[in-house]
Fold this protein.
Amino acid sequence: MEDLVRLSQIHIINFKNVDDGLLSFDDVKNHDVNILGLYGQNGSGKTALIEAIFVLKCALSNVPIPPVYAELINVEAPYSQFIFSLSVCNKENEARLNVVYDFKIRKDPDEHVGMLADGIDITQTKSKVTLFDEVLSYSFETPDLKERMSPVIDTTVGSVFGPKTKYDALIGLDKNTVIDLLAAKAIAKEGSRSFIFSKALSDAVHAHCRQNLRIALLNQLSRFGREELFVVGTNSSGLISLNMLPFFFYYMEGGRRVFGAITLPADKPAFVSQDVMLAVSHVINDINIVLTAIVPGLSIGLQDLGSQLGKDGRQGKSIQLISIRGTRRIPLCHESEGVKKIVSILHLLICVYNRASVTVAIDELDSGIFEYLLGELLHIIEQGGCGQLIFTSHNLRPLETIDKRSIAFTSTDPKDRYVRLSNLKTTNNLRDVYYRDILLGGSDAPVYDRTSNVDIELAFRKAWHPDVA
């Protein structure tokens, strides 16, 4: 049985409008929840949480953090810091690794030298993300034993990493390896990548150690980031509005994992390879089983428009995404934004329901989805789901359908951005309590910056008539 990796806590510092935000995925009684919904007013730090999880995915997967994230660092701070707590559990022997991955990102210039037609050199300076000061710590826990948390790889030191005892155990004493890893550390920073989860460090560790708990930990975290952690940002909704449909998927076939994302046009044919065709067909078959249950009478399909040769000479298929209602078959682009949103994320929800190792983070889950259906879907996943679902939403219906322990809120205090409502009774309607706190206050941390209807009305008038007093 493979170990399961799950997020247990996120601490964000100086990222976007979050000066300091700590959010635990366990409730105050340490009850493990498989759903966490984050609510709050516009611009209060909900998207920052999802984007922080995407930064984690990039680091664990050892892919570059996109340059746009350099602009999300708080302008008054030299860097953003992320502290992720994760648990790696083995349910067979009840052993558990408590892991803390702490790192920072900063904005650095990235110079590109080009040459004009007349031979004149030009230098363009752009921003890039530098990932630095990575520290990976863990403690081992069983029902009878609990170790103290200690660092296993600390890159804040001047050498390759510390502590020295851990370095010697993982890498050994070869001087050439030290030189190679110092170079790899510099290359990782230059490439906006993690050094701890780099191929160079992984190869060096595997060359020196064969069977080691720390090697297994690095492998498990890397696999989790690459294969089992999915982040769906608001850019996906933008693609859907442009009739580009992203499919996110994860399934097992012949003992191997098939995972990733494919974006297909909804309004015109697309050429895909045979492998992509098989993956999309598998995903659509799974989606239709659930789709017909939540949108009665609707299914989607692939119109096979024939075989073609790609630019690389390989044979593929020309396909068209279609919507099917009884005998009516039309291009999928003519369905509503909500239907396309459901189709896009449905396979991830199927994965979360059935696969304990999968974690999915979705920004603005409610966008375009009928509120009653949203509440029922989340209730079903909470009651029977195995994986971990993290979402943000403006629709308050789920506050009435899922457990109060599965809901957190943003506050108006940027130094204490994520909170849970306190003093809740089992009979309280969380939606009503939240509205009461918005209108009257009373919670430990204010959850809404009060607005005045009179001021808003006057602002509307002054925008058109500047002379209005």
